[in-house]
Write a structure and sequence with these properties.
This protein is mainly alpha-helical. It has one domain (12-145): lambda repressor-like DNA-binding domains (434 Repressor (Amino-terminal Domain)). The protein is 59% helix and 0% strand. The protein contains 7 helices and no strands.
Length: 150
Amino acid sequence: MQKRKKPLLKSSDDFASIGEYVSYIRETRGYTLQDVVELVKTAIKNQALDSQCSLSRGYLSNLETGKHAHPSPFKLKALAFIYKIPYESLLQKAGYWEKSIDKLKQDTALTLMLKEVDDMTDSEVTSVIDYIDFVKSRRTSNYEKRPKKG
């Protein structure tokens, strides 16, 4: 029996609005609106989130349907925490963050890909970091080997 592959998350750029994006993430994660509200309450109770991050089911529903075009950064922080996505990607989609930052987009995509890997061991994490270091060292070496112009 083959393992079913988890689909990679779509980028926030694939959606017209912040509401569509957070709705997609919630549904992809398999949460109901009430699940998200309860998870945020628990995170606040455990002091993982500030009390200003609290959400109601109505607020989240209004956000997803486009009735809140400019959601509070605190609410976005709560959603990023619960959905395990970069906070910056939600800030960007909501218009709080400069969209032209290519590095942020690359970092966000890499972070999303890594978060989709279930239960990486410490050894696997170390291997990924070592591989990234290897790729970076090759890039540096290639730059040094290029002939100088002029």
